[in-house]
């Protein structure tokens, strides 16, 4: 049974600006935890394979879903026996009284099957390290999008 961590953050930038960061494999090392380098085979699309590296650890990945119109990307990463699914879904935040109506909301869902069966699920489900990783990942994406907005 998969453990799931799901959070979102509102971004003071257009959804298209956030999508440009999340859908570009060469930008993944700027915000994705555990990736210092990515080697992708071609343009990011469903079924694309990639390799990643951090320090002495290497892994592989596959883009499971890619929908530019709906701004959804999901990929699986693998390092040894550890496989995780990462889904990013971007939409308009909506705003309040007309303010921020062009802002983005990005949702990150991390899922994986922890070792150890039911006990492993219980322990991993309350894992503060994964909760913090999801939160920090969203914050990095937000900082990149908002910084590029100020530069642009």
What topology emerges from the helices and strands here?
Elements: E1 3-11, H1 15-22, H2 28-31, E2 37-40, E3 49-54, E4 57-67, E5 72-79, E6 82-92, E7 104-112, H3 117-125, H4 128-151
Antiparallel strand pairs: 1-7, 2-3, 3-4, 4-5, 5-6, 6-7
Describe the protein's architecture and organization:
The structure is a single chain. The protein is α+β, with helices and mostly antiparallel strands and 152 residues long. The protein has a single domain, classed as 2-Layer Sandwich (Alpha-D-Glucose-1,6-Bisphosphate, Chain A, domain 4), CATH 3.30.530. 30% of the residues lie in helices and 38% in strands. The chain is built from four helices and seven strands. The protein has helices at 15-22, 28-31, 117-125, 128-151; strands at residues 3-11, 37-40, 49-54, 57-67, 72-79, 82-92, 104-112. The protein has a seven-stranded antiparallel sheet. β5 and β6 (82-92) form a beta hairpin. α1 (15-22) packs across α4 (128-151). The longest helix has 24 residues, at 128-151. The mean pLDDT is 87.
């Amino acid at each position: 049974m998969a453990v799931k961590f799901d959070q979102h953050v509102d971004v003071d930038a257009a959804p298209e600006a956030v999508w440009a960061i999340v859908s570009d494999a060469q930008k993944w090392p700027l915000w994705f935890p555990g990736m210092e380098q990515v080697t992708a085979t071609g343009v990011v699309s469903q079924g694309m394979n990639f390799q990643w590296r951090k320090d002495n650890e290497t892994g592989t990945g596959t883009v499971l879903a890619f929908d530019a119109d709906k701004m959804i990307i999901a990929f699986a990463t693998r390092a040894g026996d550890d496989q995780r699914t990462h889904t990013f879904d971007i939409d308009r935040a909506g705003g309040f009284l007309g303010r921020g109506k062009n802002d983005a909301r990005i949702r990150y869902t991390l899922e994986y099957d922890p070792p150890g069966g039911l006990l492993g699920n219980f322990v991993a489900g309350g894992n503060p390290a994964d909760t913090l990783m999801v939160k920090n990942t969203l914050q990095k994406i937000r900082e990149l999008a908002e910084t590029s907005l100020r530069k642009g």
